[in-house]
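[Amino acid chain]
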Amino acid sequence: QLETLLVNADDRVNRAPRTGPFACDLTGAVEAAVETVDWPTSAATDQHEYLDVSGNWVPGDAGTACPVGGITPGLTQRVTITITDPDERVSRTIQVVRGDI
């Protein structure tokens, strides 16, 4: 079930709009995945980064996946998602990369 939730979170992050208020902060998409099975949102954590012009992954503005000023054309984002079962016995992590390709 945990691995299914990871795939669900991956899909939700990839399908999230690239414009508007949720283009940079993808936490809601990650949390929605665990809510589908009535797990607490605390079961899912995420780390947001973007690829800067030097080719380095850096945390975005205020913990988002965007530089100051928001999403820009050609921006590549990476979200590291960790989901832990409610009993805290099993934990899995996946990285999702999305961009205008």
In short: The longest strand covers residues 76-84. Residues 50 and 56 are 8 Å apart (CA to CA).
